[in-house]
Amino acid sequence: MRQVFLNHSSYDIKENESVLDGLLRQGVEHPHACRAGTCQSCLCRLDNNLDENADKKLINPAWQKGLKPSLAAKNYFLPCVSYLEEDQKISIALADLDQSSVSVKILEKFKFNHNVLCLRLSLADSNQSTLEQYLPGQYISLINPLGALRSYSIANIPKIDAYLELHIKIVPDGLMSQFLEHQAEVGTSLNIRGPLGSCHYFNPTKQAYPIILIGTGTGLAPLFGILKEALLQQHSGLIYLIHGGVKQEDLYLDFALKNLMTQHKNFIYKTSVLEHLDHPNHLAMDQLLEHAVKDLKNSNQAPKIYICGPAEMTQKLKINAFLSGVPSGNIESDAFI
Amino acid sequence: MTQSLYERLGGSEAVNAAVDIFYRKMLSDDRVNYFFAGVDMTQQIQKQKSFLTMVFGGPHHYSGKNMRDGHRHLVKMGLNDTHVDIVIEHLGNTLKELGVKDADIAEVAAIANSVRDDVLDR
After folding, report:
1. Which positions in chain B touch A327 (Cβ < 8 Å)?
2. How many residue pairs from chains A and B have C-beta atoms closer than 8 A?
3. What are B12-53's pLDDT values in tens digits?
4. Which of B78, B27, B18 is nearest to B54 (CA)?
5. Contact A323 B28 (CB under 8 A)
6. Global pTM?
7. Mean pLDDT computed over A131-156
């Protein structure tokens, strides 16, 4: 019988059922979100009460996908990607914040529009080499004092600003966003895990390929970070940024991006607003993407495309980009769940 | 020294060159593309690379059980011999575009055919 012991209770796990699914099936309210090993919300620790080295042998490396070596060494694992062998029994404990996360404080908090909040966080340990690990476009898991955990993308260049900037979408029943809007204030302490994700600018040999950044709503956050990094590194190829929203107000960095266009000859900013789609000359996101890819067919290098935002739109645009001829290896994405 | 099929085709470089061409054909074909609805493209490309590696005669970790488990939900959706034939057709056309010899294409098709019953769980 496959079993998991947690908080003095035991839970049977079925064959082909992940440890997380088994716990959720039996009513355990274990933190989780993506169920695919990418957000690390479900992070927990194996603790069979043997010594750490003996416990280590019980862990299948596949259960520790994407974990930092320091966490893996302490027998942390992700139950959403963990499957037990026949008759395997493990005892688990919830993640210890001190061991598995880093302390941050709110430095600044303001709103871009009615439902997007800008949060700037300073790290308790803010030496240069720590800040350098947080790359614009990657994401971190933010944990509030009540234990709510949500992932947000890095919208700035932490090593330059000495803080992390997150763009929070405020949702009516959102545990985290309501807390951040109404209870958190400058000086409030939180914890973060990460950074995770491969959506970031990476051009060590200074190639001049064109870049297309495309997303809707707060999908702009990682794209804005990547844009700033590319401009900072004097990227010589063309950079397109396509931002979409339902209403004009959803284009929450419209002014700043129009400004950047006047300052950088190689930066082109295009927008798509659903409520204006019946106006002449207004194009939908997929059309803007197709036009951008077509425009760039003359450049001698295939574009690198970054797609960020709500999962459904991200998946659709990935496929559009791919079918338009962009090589699959040139498409990076971060689908918000 | 005779080269293996996988070596003749060009090994992992051939897989990388083929996967985008092959997967574009699959996604553009309404007879099969609905099986990929809702599937993350990046993850699927990785799976297609593994599939191509296998049918090119390269190293792989697939077992009959993997293939059955992996496709069972598609069989429930109606996956049948016609679809497998279409996949083999697209495979062949992809290799033709890449200039592969007919004899080698036939060998790849034969490997693909050899897992037909596992894929269709029968």
Report:
1. 20
2. 28
3. 999 999 999 999 999 999 999 999 988 889 989 999 999 999
4. B18
5. yes
6. 0.90
7. 95
With beta carbons less than 8 A apart as the criterion, state whether A13 and A317 touch: no
Please give the angle made by the CA atoms of A288, A292 and A298, to the nearest 5 degrees: 160
Inter-chain touch B28–A335, beta carbons under 8 Å:
no
* Best of A16, A83, A319 to mutate (most B CBs within 10 Å, chain B): A319
What integer best gives the mean pLDDT of chain A? Answer: 93
Question: How much is the pLDDT for B1?
Answer: 60
Short-list A103, A40, A45, CA closest to A74: A45
Q: Is A134 exposed, middle or buried (0-12, 13-18, 19+ CB in 10 A)?
A: buried
pLDDT tens digits, one per residue of A40-74 = 999 999 988 767 777 888 899 999 988 988 899 99
ipTM value for the complex:
0.91
Closest to A334 measured CA to CA, from A86, A97, A130, A136: A136
A321-327, long-range: CB within 8 Å, 24+ apart, which pairs?
A321/A212, A321/A289, A321/A293, A322/B20, A322/B23, A322/B24, A322/B27, A322/B41, A323/B24, A323/B27, A323/B28, A324/A289, A324/A290, A324/A293, A324/A294, A325/A293, A325/A297, A326/A293, A326/A302, A327/A302, A327/B20
- DSSP state letter for A81: G
Do the chains contact at A322 and B27, CB–CB below 8 Å?
A: yes
Question: A121-141: per-residue pLDDT in tens?
Answer: 999 888 888 999 999 999 999
**Burial degree of A221 (CB within 10 A; 0-12, 13-18, 19+):** buried
CB B48 within 8 A of CB B19: yes
Query: In 3D, which of A95, A89, A98 has the Cα closest to residue A75?
Result: A95
Identify whether the C-beta of residue B22 lies closer than 8 Å to the C-beta of residue B91.
Answer: yes
HEC assignment per residue over B5-54: HHHHHCHHHHHHHHHHHHHHHHHHCCCCHHHHCCCCHHHHHHHHHHHHHH
Cβ distance B41 to A335 less than 8 Å, yes or no, reads no
Distances (CA, A) of A269 to A212, A303, B4: 10, 16, 51
**DSSP letter string over A90-132?**
EEEEEPPHHHH-EEEEEEEEEEEETTEEEEEEEESS--HHHHT
Helix (H, G, I), strand (E, B) or coil at A67: coil
